Amino acid sequence: MSSSALDGRIIVTGGAGLIGSAVIWFLNRQFRENILVVDALDKSDKWKNLAALSFFDYLEGTELRRRLREAPDRLGPVSCVFHLGACSDTRERDSAYLMDNNYAFTRELAEWCLDRDVRMVYASSAATYGDGSRGFSEKVALNRLRPLNAYGYSKHLLDCHAEKQGWFDRLLGLKYFNVYGPNEQHKGDMRSVVNKAFEQIQTSGRVGLFRSYRAEYADGEQRRDFLYVKEAAEITVKLATSEATGLYNVGSGDIHTWNELAQAVFDAMGQLPQIDYIEMPEGLRERYQYHTQADMKKLSELELDYQKYTLREGVFDYVRNYLLTESHLGD
Fold this sequence. Notes:
Blueprint: E1 10-13, H1 18-29, E2 35-39, E3 57-60, H2 61-70, E4 80-83, H3 95-115, E5 119-125, H4 150-165, E6 172-176, E7 178-180, H5 193-204, E8 207-210, E9 223-224, E10 226-228, H6 229-240, E11 246-250, E12 256-257, H7 258-268, E13 275-278, H8 282-285, H9 297-300, H10 311-323
Parallel strand pairs: 1-2, 1-4, 2-3, 4-5, 5-6, 6-11, 7-10, 8-13
Antiparallel strand pairs: 9-12
């Protein structure tokens, strides 16, 4: 695989979303604009994530799916598909919807790509690892993983199907960890804690973090692998032009506590930290990940050259250049 994978028409599903719009932003920086954006522009302000980006056309996700079934050749010659569209709400309880939207739709698009020898990169998720008791490495057998919620399971099922069908000889699935950054305002309650903390600090000067319900973790000391969206986008695009196939973790490989994250937001806003520890909703307590840390050995073996952001660097760029200025990528 080479950069030629991006020389033809590129489809980006979820193109108005957090990672999808960042991928388009990065492609534009490489002077690539032959992009078909696919999303579901409902009544949210998600369209604002596209306003400063360059692409040749837009298509609703339902229309793309209809064409895959009824007129598969109408999409014309395509060189690469970034399938980043999905319902990412970890609290969604409509399992039938998740199975159709996240699993079945991805399967149909993968079959279309494989039949036409189109490079396909799709979003899996760190949620597939469940509580992490079996580790966060791509080497862990898929049949040993137990996701904690229906969203994670819908992603996991596609990974399992691809493995059973032998698709990983050509297909590339990316297990994104906690991605944060500009162009996530439309996500509502699923926005990153950076975004929510910024809003809370502006309003009250304080931040609320979930209490811990496990003795081995103090309040706010739950740990996550946080990844800035600009880094996630660059990794995604550069993996697409590599020889990589199969599953890859996309994280920082580092861990930080929620307290550290909140401290970084306060620092970026030039304020002293004021943190309150609040009750976690009961329905979330049994499905909550207390620790995530991507094993990045597999990705590091590819020796990709991309810009890395420390937590502090990512938070400062996000807060000062986007949240404080109410800007989007590309503005």
